[in-house]
Amino acid sequence: MFAWIARTRSGHEAMTWDPRVVRFVVQHTGSHFAQRAMEGGRALGSPTGQLLIASLIVLVLALSRKFSDMVFVGTIVAGAHVAIAPLKEAFGEGFPSGHALGSMTVGAAAVVIAWSTRLRWPVLLAALAFVGLVGVSRIYYTAHYPSDVLGGWALGAAWVVVGRLATHAGAWGLRRFQEGAL
Questions:
Q1: Is the C-alpha dihedral spanning 130, 131, 134, 139 positive or negative?
Q2: Which of 19, 45, 56, 154 is most buried by its number of CB atoms within 10 A?
Q3: What three-state secondary structure class fits 14?
């Protein structure tokens, strides 16, 4: 999806449906509660907010002695934050949304870690709320087009999947090496 959006956006300011989605979001978030929620999404979605949430996840994993998961979350979130500057340089200032990329990376990494536990559903719901709120707030404040947000989400999800596959491949290789098979 990221490649499709990037290719479609290439040389264009916005996708044809972007302005309609922006109008819809702005028109339907006029209540006091919605405005407060958008402020919360902006704060949580900032690099500081994302790193704070990721740090709390890493701390919980460290206290639970889940060191490989701790390294996975720390590495995957740091990698997403490092990658955003070259991505913006390659595709243009607005694409992809760094807030959407970072929030998806934090949320998806938390879900991947919690999936095999009894916390899978609460973590999934919290991640969906966090990622959705951050993305909608970027559109509400007209900081990004919806396609920028979708591109960030797609890249963040792909980044977590690739990172998890690499983590499992590395663990498999280490076990094989320790067994003397490599």
A1: negative
A2: 45
A3: coil
Helix (H) or strand (E) holding 174, with range, is helix 146-178
70 vs 91: CA distance, rounded Å: 31
The full length of the chain comes to 182
SS3 97: coil
Distance CA 170, CA 102 (A): 24
3-state SS, 25-46, equals: HHHCCCCHHHHHHHHHHHHHHC
Distance CA 152, CA 159 (A): 10
Q: Average of pLDDT values for 103-117?
A: 93
What contacts 62, CB < 8 A, 6 or more positions away? 70
Alpha helices in 46-119 (DSSP H): 47-63, 67-91, 98-114
User: Which amino acid, 21?
Assistant: V
Bigger pLDDT: 100 or 165? 100
Q: How distant, in Å, are the alpha carbons of 37, 176, 178 from that of 63?
A: 31, 28, 27
Asked whether residue 98 carries a pLDDT value surpassing 70, the answer given is yes
